[in-house]
Amino acid sequence: MESLYLLIPVAIVFAILVVRLLLWAIDSGQYDDLDKEGWRILADEDSEGGAPGSNDHGGDKNND
User: Fold this and answer.
1) Residue 38 main-chain phi, psi, to 5 deg
2) Which site among 6, 33, 39, 49 is 20 to 30 Å from 62 CA-CA?
3) N- to C-terminal Cα separation, the chain
4) Cα–Cα distance between 34 and 43 in angstroms, integer?
């Protein structure tokens, strides 16, 4: 019974430490999607809207 007076607080401190480490890992980006960056590089650059003239409607022939 006396050993529980030591083991219960140690287990609580250990559980708090594990939760804090998990939250730190999530906040620091350890669980980000790793495949997203690889597919982003392979994606067509025109789909991002950063290509010159992609939003420019000044050259449309249908513009009356």
Assistant:
1) -65, -40
2) 49
3) 89
4) 15
Q: What is the pLDDT of residues 3-61, one digit of tens each?
A: 999 999 999 999 999 999 999 999 998 888 778 878 888 887 665 555 555 555 555 55
CA distance 64 to 8: 79
CB neighbour burial string for 2-41, b if at least 16 within 10 angstroms, e if fewer: eeeeeeeeeeeeeeeeeeeeeeeeeeeeeeeeeeeeeeee
What tokens does 37 get?
């960056």
Q: Using a CB cutoff of 8 Å and minimum separation of 24, what contacts does 47-55 make?
A: none
- State how far the Cα of 29 lies from the Cα of 53, in Å rounded to an integer: 35
**How far is it, in rounded angstroms, from Cα 35 to Cα 39?**
6
